[in-house]
Design goal:
36% of the residues lie in helices and 11% in strands. By secondary structure, the protein is an alpha/beta fold. Strands 1-5-4-6-7-8-9-3 form an eight-stranded mixed beta sheet, with helices on both faces. The chain has a four-stranded antiparallel beta sheet with strand order 10-11-14-13.
Length: 532
């Protein structure tokens, strides 16, 4: 119905940070307000940025340490929509005028399938060993099942090994643990934007690790290009720019399938990105949490673990969890696969604080080994429901004349609402988001994903039909009202700027240099978008 966008082994002992605990704590405290040294005279406009998560930090709490004040500040500044939603959550009977949540990436389509499977007798096993302290990497029986599961679904060329598996309570903890054991305080990971914005907190709150942005945009530059396309050239330029800003980059974060874009990387692209990291001796963290939520077969998803050869297996670390693919975000199960045993051991040590109960480990092992149920019942029905919900929301957006990236993986559409902003600023983006929230529909705005173009929003479609219909009705009412307002105002005579006063923007996660970039509106090939 809608066209689709086209688009060596290292010594492990050198991979971990060598600072003492006291050094790390001191660096964390010293770096709260520190600017990067060595800024260049000229920048590469719009290509990169170095994040400063606490650039607008302020707190007068005398009860908390400096770290405690930063942690509380993140909660206060970056959870507004989520907190508001939970105070006024929609319920068809109890609260029909409550907020419809199309902003939080959860799969709410298959509770019936999951509740039946999780209620079966094999999920209720209790043995003494499950009530005692486990190996902090996870019980051996679970790590064995995870290795078999990943070998099968990632299509690995050789069986994956249980000793390379660590299990803990979700990918948020994994990001935090990996950042802590791979980087010194103040160092950085490269990450393409837009990206799942909570990673900013995951790597910063414990490890004091920053993100160096590889800015992507909607401009289509050639026949084989697509909006927000990552290339090795862009990685090289961003690394060069971040280094010139004084940032020490230790790794690259890739999300595949990508959140919020909903696309996937080809094997050739993955090899190119991994080759780039090998040349610069960078770790690569690959988040594959949506790998079984690819509902468009034409996308042809490929896992990093399915590649014939990893350029640098000692610096390649892959994570997966059940929160997205199995709609279990509340159970908190995640897993790391790495061939680097020093990294695995260091992360496992942190599992003292992020581990799983023995009972949950037993349930996860039973679930992952039930290949018949997964392949014959759950995955076909889940993909069918995801595709139907995606089609419904796509058609609603088309009827509204709203462009969006089609994707085909994950639970979201990346929606272009720029035409509803009068001046094209992040302040207006935030105002539109708040207006939607006041109209009882929650979306996620682009600034939270470090998108450099104001006006992009992530819209979640993996919800029940009655909630989707009501949410889209409320969205339509706001956009039709905004459309009338913008028609009544003359168009701006100056180029759009992606940001002005960062003090007024929630989610203060942007680069302090982003305000200097001018983004001109470039016509995009219509086949790259879904438009009416």
């Amino acid at each position: 119905m809608f066209p689709l966008p086209q688009k060596e082994s290292r010594a492990p002992a050198t991979c971990l940070g060598s600072a003492t605990t006291q050094d790390v704590v001191s660096s964390y405290q010293d770096g709260l307000g520190r600017e990067s040294p060595g800024k260049p005279d000229q920048k590469l406009p719009g290509l990169y940025g170095v994040g400063d998560p606490v650039s607008k930090f302020s707190s007068d709490s005398s009860c908390l340490s400096s770290r405690g004040r930063v942690i509380k500040w993140f909660w206060d500044s970056a959870e507004e929509g989520y907190r508001t939603y939970h105070m006024d959550e929609y319920d068809e009977v109890k609260n029909p005028d409550g907020i419809i949540n199309l902003g939080t990436s959860e799969n709410k389509l298959c509770f019936d399938l999951l509740s039946r499977r999780l209620s079966q007798s094999d999920m209720l096993r209790v043995e003494p060993s499950l009530l005692q302290y486990p190996d902090w990497r996870g019980h051996p029986f679970l790590r064995e099942e995870v290795a078999k599961f990943l070998s099968y679904y990632c299509k690995s060329p050789a069986p994956l090994k249980p000793e390379n598996v660590v299990v803990l309570n979700g990918c948020a903890s994994l990001f935090s643990a990996l950042a802590t054991v791979l980087c010194e305080a103040g160092e950085a990971f490269l990450i393409p934007t837009p990206y799942y914005g909570a990673i900013t907190q995951h790597v910063y709150l414990y490890g004091n690790v920053r993100l160096a942005y590889v800015y992507l945009d909607s401009e289509v530059t050639g026949l084989d290009s697509c909006p927000f396309q990552l290339t090795v050239e862009k990685l090289e330029l961003a690394l060069q720019g971040a280094t010139s800003e004084g940032a020490k980059v230790k790794g690259l974060i890739l999300i595949n399938p990508q959140n919020p874009l909903g696309n996937v990387y080809s094997p050739e692209e993955l090899q190119g990105f991994l080759g780039f990291a090998e040349r610069h001796k960078l770790h690569v963290i690959v988040d594959e949490v949506y790998m079984l939520s690819v509902f468009e077969e034409s996308l042809g998803y490929h896992s990093v673990l399915g590649l014939e050869r990893l350029p640098d297996p000692q610096r390649t670390h892959v994570m997966w969890a059940t929160s997205k693919d199995f709609g279990m975000s509340g159970l908190r199960f995640g897993t790391l696969y790495t061939e680097n045993q020093e990294v695995a051991t260091a992360v496992a040590s942190l599992c003292r604080y992020h581990g799983l109960s023995g009972l949950l480990q037993s349930q996860m092992a039973q679930l992952l080994r039930d290949r018949d149920w997964i392949n014959q019942v759950y995955l076909p029905e889940n993909h069918s429901r995801l595709k139907a919900a995606h089609t419904y929301v796509s058609e609603e957006l088309q009827a509204l004349g709203v462009p969006f990236l089609r994707g085909g993986a994950g639970f979201f559409l990346w929606v272009d609402l720029r035409k509803f902003l009068r001046q094209g600023t992040f302040e207006e983006e935030l105002l539109l988001w708040r207006r939607l929230l006041e109209s009882k529909v929650l979306l996620s705005f682009g600034k939270a994903f470090e998108c450099k173009e104001p006006g992009w929003f992530r819209l979640i479609f993996s919800d029940k039909t009655h909630r989707l219909r009501l949410g889209m009705q409320r969205l339509r009412q706001v956009l039709e009202s905004k459309s009338q307002e913008t028609e009544d105002v003359p168009p701006p005579t100056t180029p759009r700027t992606p940001v002005s006063s960062a003090d007024e923007v929630a989610f203060a996660w942007s680069s302090p240099h982003l305000a200097s970039f001018i983004i001109l509106q470039v016509p995009v090939k219509p086949e790259m978008y879904q438009v009416s």
